[in-house]
Amino acid sequence: MNPPVPLIQLRRITKTYGQGAAAFQALRGVDLDVQPGDFVAIMGPSGSGKSTAMNLLGLLDTPSSGEYRFQGVPVHTLSRDERARLRRRYFGFVFQGFHLLPRTTALENVELPLIYRGERARERHQAARAALADVGLAGWESHTPAELSGGQQQRVAIARAIVTRPQVLLADEPTGNLDSQRSHEIMTLIQQLNATRGITVLMVTHEADIAAYARRVVHFRDGRIEREEVPAPRAQPSTGTAAGGEGA
Ligand SMILES: Nc1ncnc2c1ncn2[C@@H]1O[C@H](COP(=O)(O)OP(=O)(O)OP(=O)(O)O)[C@@H](O)[C@H]1O
Ligand SMILES: [Mg+2]
Questions:
Q1: Where is this region: Disordered (predicted)?
Q2: How many whole angstroms from 97 Cα to the centroid of ligand 2?
């Protein structure tokens, strides 16, 4: 049997910022295959090209050279509009800084991607409510970001990322602004989305115990993938075998 077509295939990807003497090569030949349902953590020193790679993966930017196939489609050849359409259909994004609109309710924040898609108000409200419930925020629909904790704000951002039912969740340091307890709650949520819905997750993190939620850990250095490893398995609090009571 042939192996399945990778969801994502990067071949010899480079990215150069700037021109002439000021040019800087942030990616220097990246090869990566990601299968549907995979959970990949990306680690590496500051400036090694992790966010650059995430921007390319999420079709927010284009490589300087190399090939990117998404579901077999050579997306490096698409027009700006075609890329934007694919991005809205297949990708959800979560960032370190949450990126919620201030003075805007949780429900409205989560509805935003559906407004861009031109969906009707009734369907939007329904989908946004369901997504907020999925991240444990039923009842918080009318709160603005200022009225929510950091962990709750990141849950709203995750609800916004999944409300369009994306195939891929791209998360750039999603726990970077959260304390340890909140970080593990957010990671448990992301892991559940991966396990129960098959959402493919690519996540940048600086912390090994956050990367340990993934199935693969890819290490960047100087614009290249230096090595890949399988993280040590985590104790699963949900199986009831872990010592110590862990709240919901
Ligand atoms: N828009 C840009 N213009 C010019 N140089 C850039 C741009 N974006 C990133 N760079 C440079 O490319 C290199 C890689 O940046 P990138 O943001 O991908 O690093 P990173 O691995 O995400 O680092 P960090 O862990 O600090 O977030 C850095 O040297 C950075 O200064
Ligand atoms: Mg970065």
A1: 228-248
A2: 12
Closest Cα to atom 24 of ligand 1 = 46
The pLDDT tens digits for 160-185 are 999 999 999 999 999 999 999 999 99
Burial class (CB within 10 angstroms; exposed 0-12, middle 13-18, buried 19+) of 2: exposed
Q: Which among 16, 28, 51, 56 is the best mutation to test ligand 1's pocket, defined by most ligand atoms within 8 Å of the CB?
A: 51
**Does the domain made of 24-233 have the CATH classification 3.40.50.300?**
yes
Interval 92-132: pLDDT, tens = 999 999 999 999 999 999 999 999 889 999 999 999 999 99
Ligand nearest to the CA of 55: 1
For residues 178 and 151, the answer to whether their CB atoms sit within 8 Å is yes
Residues shown for the chain: 248
Q: Could you tell me which of 234, 209, 167 has the C-alpha nearest to residue 43?
A: 209
pTM assigned to the model? 0.92
The rounded radius of gyration (Å) of the Cα atoms in the chain is: 18
Domain ranges for the chain, please list them.
24-233
